[in-house]
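Q: What does the assembled structure look like for these inputs?
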Amino acid sequence: MPVVDVDPDELRRLTGHDEKSDEELKTDLFALGLEFEGETEDGLLQLEFGPDRLDRLSVEGVARSLRYQYGDDRGVYVPNTNDADWTIVVEESVPDERPCVTGAVIRGVDLDDDALDSLIQLQEKLHATMGRKRAKGAIGIHDLTMLKGAAYDPEGDGGPAGNSITYRGVAPDGDRFVPLDADREMTPAAVLADHPTGETYASLVGAYDRYPAIYDEIGLFSFPPVINGRRTEVSTDSRNLFVELTGTDQWTIDRMCNVICYALDARGATIEEVGVDYPDGRLVRPDFEVETKTVTHDRIESMLGIDLDVEETVDLFERSGLDAVPDETDGTYEVSIPPYRTDVIHPLDLIDDVGRAYGFNDLDPRYPDVATVGSRHDRSKLESAARTRLVGLGFEDLLNFHMISEPENYDRMGLTAGTGAYGGDPPVTITEPYSEDYTMLRTWALPSLLMVLENNTHRTYPQDLAEVGLAAYADDDENTGVAERRTVAAALARHDATYENAKSRLAALCRGFGVDLVTPATDHPTFIDGRVADVVIDGETVGVIGEIHPRVLVEHDLDLPVVAFEFRLDALA
Amino acid sequence: MQLPDSQVAVLEAASATEDRTIERLSEATGLKPETVTGAAFDLETEGLVEVSTDETVSHQVTDEGETYAEVGLPEVRLYRAARAAGADNDAVPMGQVIDAADLDGPEVDIALANYARKGYGDIDSGQVTADPDTDPDADPEAAALASLCPGDDEAQRPPSSQSEADDADALDRLVRRGLVDRTERAVRSVTLTDAGVTALMEGVETAETIDRLTPELLASGEWRDAEFSAYNVEADAPAERGGSVHILRQTADRVKETLVGMGFREMGGPHADSEFWINDCLFMPQDHPARTHWDQFALDVPPMESIPDDLLDRVRSAHLEGVGEDGDGYHSPWTEAVAREVDLRGHTTSLSMRYLSGTEIGDLDPPERFFSVEKVYRNDTLDPTHLLEFFQIEGWVMAENLSVRDLMGTFEEFYRQFGITDLEFKPHYNPYTEPSFELFGTHPETGELIEIGNSGMFREEVLRPLGVECDVMAWGLALERLLMLMYGFDDIRDVHGTLCDLDLLRNTEVLH
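A:
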């Protein structure tokens, strides 16, 4: 979940609430869903929250939410915008994989160190969340005074000319530029190969034929989504900014752009529109259009479980930064949603806002007046019954992982995958294993028990262990491609363990479940020849029982005999 | 008559005409005094002897007492020295008198305290006076001490009745001063009763004592005359372990019992499932960060073939177009190929989706309550509180017109069963529920506010494609979290998995 670092003094200043202590702020923020996680070395509050309200990824956004909560602000706020002077011209050469671009011009910013840090943090957090690590959307912020626009007539009617920059595709070893944190000119391909930031994001564009690039009159100044050029780097001296965003989805980058514009507006900057001229038409951005959704009064009341009057409901909407116009005839509200909201995709999301403004913790819990009859799942009952019986026979009940490695599951047991022996079924393997210890699902549970014995040789004997759990193998006949079964495994490690010890316990278990057990001799590489048998329950071969082969014992560093059995749980049903 | 051998011996050693002490009987029979005492009381119960008890008091002079018996009590020595220095006329400096009396160390304090108590004189501002009428030779404590010391002629002198009371007081004082130890002792004596004499005359036989009760003794009836030899019942016995149900299973059972009691039915279903059931039904966008292979385990098996077509279409539409007139859907790509990929489930909500869709046990009619306590798999960093596999408690309630208040009431009831009260509901965001809440509760031991679950009302984008028209509220939490809260374990790896510590499992306190 996103974590944003917020300076409590900035928060007090931006909300106009100097009187709030840090503790009061934390309580107010918790009510908004922002949880205090700790403090940075510099005394900033680290706030964690769900990835829905991405407009709160900056101190400016958090302050705006608090002002609504305190009732200082009400209703939808949309910043004024000046008409476009600049245009981003999109050329046909733009890579198909990253076709979208948007932007805004910001004038009159006053960036001290804190404000600049906040802006950089917001950019990074937006990249990490909505931007899907820059794959879906990437932001470049430039010092406008360092850009030299080409003269451009957007209407093509000889009216007042503006400035333009172009978004186009460039050959990997095409034009050179000096990227941030470098002191020499590099081609885009060289950036991906040799620049630290380039290496990090190389996988995003490495496979493209042409790389995305943005040009002004002087040349290439931005290589999205990888890195900006040094020429246009923003500093605390910057007063006017050019914000550009590229990505795979226009809506996503437009909303990311809005979040940035709102944050800078909160610091007193002026937003100026930018034209985006695609080959098939012109957009004007930022897109501050206010959308509306219809919410019914009944649904609000039924979801929150309380009665509200219309006036009160409108008030709660406005305290959420929304506007609501009631329609008394059909009991609905037309609710306006400000353009920095990225999370409202259904009327229910607006009811959630009403609930937050009301204060969910002020609702009185009630136990639902709904009668149902509870029960256990049949398989879960059978598992519990087998476990109880095994414990009664003196076994310590174990719980092991379903994931295991191939050497543990097969090799160290003397077993080969794909053989008919119990446990020798073909493996279900994990595509990109996290660790070499967990590369497949276990086909049987005895390897897990042997590993527990191996790890507990310093504990007193006898060690009588059992597990009732999952095992699985690859099976194309299954819809999931995986045959899952519950297995019953037991092992007795004791100085005088014999086949008889295992057999007597298996027989007791079977008697308890009223099933017939016979144990005809068989071969199994995990066990000693002549001391191993099939477990045949009610006429079906369902498992194996025997004395573990010394080769397997030595492999597991065990210096005493172990006898064991394992069979399918459903044989007891 | 048959009696155990110790009783026979005591009976034979006792006399009808003379009280014989236990000590004497012990010497006569060669039995330990405690055995004789036990036998005597048993015989008394049978009416064969009488046991009488005399309380005797004896005094023993301590080392310190013996010293004073020799050189005189410190206060007496101080008085004599004071008189010698003329303190009966004029006050004399204390230091001078103490030196003259040859008093040293703790004796000085003892001398001064008792000097004043006995009225030998006054001690004031370092000056000592002596009462000329005192006779130090008549000090009753000195006399009593002397009488207890052997070799002193006066000790043989029978105390006059007149002075007995004084002597008793003086003796008490000596005991309090630690100069004499007093020992009080009950001396038991045994006398044969008439019945005892008769029994002896008729003849008494020794009955056998029995170490182990055997089937033969029971069958023959011999046990009726048997005496069972006494065991040392306080001694430690060899360790016995037995088996126990795994602690995490016990915790799961307790959760299941609680939920069944609250009217919930248990779900079951596959551990390996398609992304469709695990994520797409849950309205998790396909480019959601939690859906990368970094967070979940993809399996190397063919894509899932059988997913109901109409359901697949409705879920796709929910993602791309939204649900309802004002629903928007996501601005994220959605492909069927991704939906059909098979993973290990990252949550058991895949089971909830299967049940709610009607494909698992048929269409459901509200009201319904379902739960599961089953394993889930997440590609997490291994640490004391995180494993790649853990148990998720998942529960949901399906009914008409459920509200957030019903959700809160249900959770308050559930967590109360585990001693967690004062729930707080932090508004939260999940792709699949709205409103959503992280649940916080007060730790039963530490009093801290801790996160104990995630909850919410399933979104319409989740329910409508599944064909559910009413409300469903749901919640989930890790069973391990509950376990660690209840037991205070600090490393889950000791409990779950092949690195488990057998002794920890064997010795964990029983849950009830």
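Residues 291-362 of chain A form a domain with the Phenylalanyl-tRNA Synthetase; Chain B, domain 1 fold (CATH 3.30.56.10).
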